[in-house]
């Protein structure tokens, strides 16, 4: 069994991480926070050139010809970097909406009764007629509310999986930020990471990240809707709770606008809502328990 | 990334499945949990059947994936648990295989595989549980023997064991991680007294072992004198790596049974219970993936499983308790009846966040060894 990323997959992940570190480091992140609602079109085209949107498009159609596991690794990196924009919708539109694959066209979609980035998008998939603007809790994700019963069904499983991958990346990053802070921040004459109360918050974060990681990767391999529903639940839990615990480990600093922690938590909330209510995923998984073939 | 097995591995699975279907109906009924001699005979008999069919050494010689297939199929078919052979097969055996001399391997390994001898673990002491390096049981040289005095606790299977993997302090002056030695002690040696301990589940699962000037030949020492700490770390990495694989399969089966029971007694109509069972389904699916992940990592790197075992144990031990709490919710008032099937399991599951290192100790391991946080209070 080879349930570990291959050398090619590791190289792909490192490539995406490198690109995002260069083009969307801390400076760019803070700039994006200060200009809410504005999408960096130059960055969007660079992502397109790097193949981020065309990753799963067949080579014959001008795509990269890779599969869901590779897409999941790339979206994990996007989640890690807190990359803003309707990434999932544009990725899913590649090959269907002209210019989406290359990053020339920004595509958004109606998911979970919400539309992200309606003002900046060139194309909207789904019916967003009469959408009402919200004052978004996440300063990097403008939101509109769509009041239509038809949008309350469970979204496309691939959209769910890619969102879970972003949640995983965010969770992994906040776990790292918490551990880094705990190693250097001193109180009572020693690093706070030496205190078990802090140590255990960090350890629980890591356990959540690693559990979500295997669920997300396995779902990318099987593409099974139930595996995807499970991955979604674990990734949402990891993203939200790791961000909360990271905030807690940072103490007073964690409650400031200056620290990045709140941005991770707010994005995790947005992504959890994007995929509709978690109750639907839970009901789906409960129903499976009654089926005879397991 | 790939979750598939090779054709050879699938062939192994098919052959094993066929064999299990053939032999399991021939097994005698399971003895009562309190019948120690009966349990010993039953568990050793099963080990002998595995030996005769060529499956006895699957924990030692097979690849991690083949071991995973074995545990998965055995549990799915309802085969007996490793039981009284646990320490021999999963602790002492691998340790002697890795650290023993050719003569020691020849003496102790075949009887473990054939199901002739039972081992127990003499690590924990009343004043040194997870702080293993604080152990105080003393051993001093007298000619060709060590003379051992002290006491051990939480010793599973001590009542019926032939051998004990015993940690003793051979140099009290050395720093506490040094000065420890690993000995194979015969349980019938003069001076060994076993006293059963009753668990909160009402069963006698483990015992205290008192050692009063017990003579153990120097030839029974595994590894060098005062090098027992390193030898022990080899043992513990086996324990945390592979101990719970079959149980995850069992928990997934229980979850399905709970859902069907809830449907039968009307509890299924409660959406909060359904959602809880759905969450648990996600949880145990992920735990199975975590098992596969750890196994494929061990396969890639070779050697003993790493700290991934601590991550698994932390998540699994709590999930198992939540599973049986959900069972109590399904059972309603009957959850207070010890005669009901899941009630004893609920009590037993309380040990999982304690045994082989409490969750608090596991979190320290994860924080210090994976996240690099400083050691401290």
Automatic annotation (TrEMBL), chain A:
<keyword id="KW-0560">Oxidoreductase</keyword>
<feature type="domain" description="Acyl-CoA dehydrogenase/oxidase C-terminal">
    <location>
        <begin position="162"/>
        <end position="270"/>
    </location>
</feature>
<dbReference type="InterPro" id="IPR009100">
    <property type="entry name" value="AcylCoA_DH/oxidase_NM_dom_sf"/>
</dbReference>
<dbReference type="InterPro" id="IPR037069">
    <property type="entry name" value="AcylCoA_DH/ox_N_sf"/>
</dbReference>
<dbReference type="InterPro" id="IPR013786">
    <property type="entry name" value="AcylCoA_DH/ox_N"/>
</dbReference>
<dbReference type="InterPro" id="IPR036250">
    <property type="entry name" value="AcylCo_DH-like_C"/>
</dbReference>
<feature type="domain" description="Acyl-CoA dehydrogenase/oxidase N-terminal">
    <location>
        <begin position="6"/>
        <end position="91"/>
    </location>
</feature>
<keyword id="KW-0274">FAD</keyword>
<comment type="similarity">
    <text>Belongs to the acyl-CoA dehydrogenase family.</text>
</comment>
<protein>
    <submittedName>
        <fullName>Acyl-CoA/acyl-ACP dehydrogenase</fullName>
    </submittedName>
</protein>
<dbReference type="InterPro" id="IPR009075">
    <property type="entry name" value="AcylCo_DH/oxidase_C"/>
</dbReference>
<keyword id="KW-0285">Flavoprotein</keyword>
<dbReference type="Pfam" id="PF02771">
    <property type="entry name" value="Acyl-CoA_dh_N"/>
</dbReference>
<dbReference type="Pfam" id="PF00441">
    <property type="entry name" value="Acyl-CoA_dh_1"/>
</dbReference>
TrEMBL record, chain B:
<feature type="domain" description="Acyl-CoA dehydrogenase/oxidase C-terminal">
    <location>
        <begin position="226"/>
        <end position="371"/>
    </location>
</feature>
<keyword id="KW-0560">Oxidoreductase</keyword>
<keyword id="KW-0285">Flavoprotein</keyword>
<dbReference type="InterPro" id="IPR046373">
    <property type="entry name" value="Acyl-CoA_Oxase/DH_mid-dom_sf"/>
</dbReference>
<dbReference type="InterPro" id="IPR009100">
    <property type="entry name" value="AcylCoA_DH/oxidase_NM_dom_sf"/>
</dbReference>
<dbReference type="Pfam" id="PF02771">
    <property type="entry name" value="Acyl-CoA_dh_N"/>
</dbReference>
<dbReference type="Pfam" id="PF00441">
    <property type="entry name" value="Acyl-CoA_dh_1"/>
</dbReference>
<feature type="domain" description="Acyl-CoA oxidase/dehydrogenase middle">
    <location>
        <begin position="120"/>
        <end position="213"/>
    </location>
</feature>
<dbReference type="InterPro" id="IPR009075">
    <property type="entry name" value="AcylCo_DH/oxidase_C"/>
</dbReference>
<feature type="domain" description="Acyl-CoA dehydrogenase/oxidase N-terminal">
    <location>
        <begin position="6"/>
        <end position="116"/>
    </location>
</feature>
<comment type="similarity">
    <text>Belongs to the acyl-CoA dehydrogenase family.</text>
</comment>
<protein>
    <submittedName>
        <fullName>Acyl-CoA dehydrogenase</fullName>
    </submittedName>
</protein>
<keyword id="KW-0274">FAD</keyword>
<dbReference type="InterPro" id="IPR013786">
    <property type="entry name" value="AcylCoA_DH/ox_N"/>
</dbReference>
<dbReference type="InterPro" id="IPR036250">
    <property type="entry name" value="AcylCo_DH-like_C"/>
</dbReference>
<dbReference type="InterPro" id="IPR037069">
    <property type="entry name" value="AcylCoA_DH/ox_N_sf"/>
</dbReference>
<dbReference type="InterPro" id="IPR052161">
    <property type="entry name" value="Mycobact_Acyl-CoA_DH"/>
</dbReference>
<dbReference type="Pfam" id="PF02770">
    <property type="entry name" value="Acyl-CoA_dh_M"/>
</dbReference>
<dbReference type="InterPro" id="IPR006091">
    <property type="entry name" value="Acyl-CoA_Oxase/DH_mid-dom"/>
</dbReference>
């Amino acid at each position: 069994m080879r349930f570990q990323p291959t050398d090619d997959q590791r190289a792909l992940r490192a490539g995406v991480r490198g690109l995002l570190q260069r083009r969307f480091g801390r400076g760019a992140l803070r700039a994006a926070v200060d200009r809410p609602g504005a999408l960096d079109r130059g960055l969007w085209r660079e992502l397109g050139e790097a193949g981020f949107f065309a990753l799963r498009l067949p080579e014959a159609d001008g795509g990269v010809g890779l599969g869901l596991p590779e897409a999941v690794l790339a979206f994990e990196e996007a989640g890690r970097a807190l990359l803003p924009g309707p990434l999932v919708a544009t990725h899913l539109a590649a090959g269907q909406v002209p210019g989406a694959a290359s990053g020339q066209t920004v595509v958004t979609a109606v998911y979970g009764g919400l539309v992200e980035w309606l003002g900046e998008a060139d194309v909207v998939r789904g019916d967003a007629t009469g959408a009402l603007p919200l004052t978004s809790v996440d300063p990097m994700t403008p939101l509109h509310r769509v009041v239509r019963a038809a949008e309350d069904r469970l979204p496309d499983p691939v959209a769910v999986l890619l969102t879970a991958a972003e949640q995983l990346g965010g969770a992994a990053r906040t776990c790292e930020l918490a551990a880094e802070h705990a190693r250097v921040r001193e109180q009572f004459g020693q690093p706070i990471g030496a205190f078990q109360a802090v140590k255990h918050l960090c350890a629980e974060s890591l356990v959540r990240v690693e559990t979500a990681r295997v669920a997300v990767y396995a779902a990318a391999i099987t593409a099974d809707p139930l595996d995807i529903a499970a991955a979604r639940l674990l990734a949402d839990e990891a993203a939200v709770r790791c961000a909360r615990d990271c905030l807690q480990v940072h103490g007073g600093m964690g409650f400031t606008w200056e620290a990045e922690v709140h941005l991770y938590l707010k994005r995790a909330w947005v992504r959890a809502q994007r995929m509709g209510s978690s109750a639907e995923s839970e009901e789906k998984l409960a129903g499976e328990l009654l089926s005879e073939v397991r | 990334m790939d979750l598939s097995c090779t054709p050879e591995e699938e062939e192994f699975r098919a052959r094993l499945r066929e064999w299990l279907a053939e032999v399991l109906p021939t097994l005698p009924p399971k003895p009562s949990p309190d019948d120690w001699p009966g349990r010993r005979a039953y568990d050793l008999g099963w080990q002998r059947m595995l030996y005769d069919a060529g499956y006895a050494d699957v924990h030692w010689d097979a690849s991690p994936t083949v071991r995973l297939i074995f545990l998965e199929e055995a549990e799915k078919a309802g085969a007996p648990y490793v039981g009284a052979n646990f320490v021999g097969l999963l602790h002492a055996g691998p340790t002697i295989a890795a650290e023993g001399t050719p003569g020691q391997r020849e003496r102790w390994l075949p009887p473990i595989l054939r199901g002739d001898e039972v081992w127990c673990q003499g690590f924990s002491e009343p004043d040194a549980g997870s702080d293993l390096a604080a152990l105080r049981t003393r051993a001093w040289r007298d000619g060709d023997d060590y003379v051992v005095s002290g006491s051990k606790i939480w010793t599973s299977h001590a009542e019926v064991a032939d051998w004990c993997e015993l940690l003793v302090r051979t140099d009290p002056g050395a720093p506490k991680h040094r000065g420890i030695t690993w000995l194979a002690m015969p349980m019938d040696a003069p001076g060994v007294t076993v006293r059963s301990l009753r668990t909160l589940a009402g069963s006698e699962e483990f015992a205290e072992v008192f050692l009063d000037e017990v003579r153990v030949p120097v030839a029974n020492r595994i590894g060098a004198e005062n090098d027992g700490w390193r030898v022990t770390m080899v043992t513990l990495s086996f324990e945390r790596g592979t101990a719970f694989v079959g149980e995850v399969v069992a928990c997934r089966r229980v979850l399905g049974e709970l859902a069907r029971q809830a449907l039968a007694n009307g509890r299924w109509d409660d959406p909060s219970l359904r959602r809880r069972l759905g969450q648990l389904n996600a949880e145990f699916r992920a735990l199975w993936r975590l098992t596969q992940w750890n196994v494929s990592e061990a396969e890639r790197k070779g050697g003993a499983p790493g700290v991934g075992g601590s991550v698994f144990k932390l998540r699994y031990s709590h999930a198992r308790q939540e599973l049986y709490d959900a069972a109590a919710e399904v059972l309603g008032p009957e959850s207070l009846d010890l005669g009901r099937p899941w009630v004893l399991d609920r009590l037993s599951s309380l040990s999982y966040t304690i045994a082989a290192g409490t969750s608090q100790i596991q979190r320290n391991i994860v924080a210090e060894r994976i996240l690099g946080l400083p050691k401290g209070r």
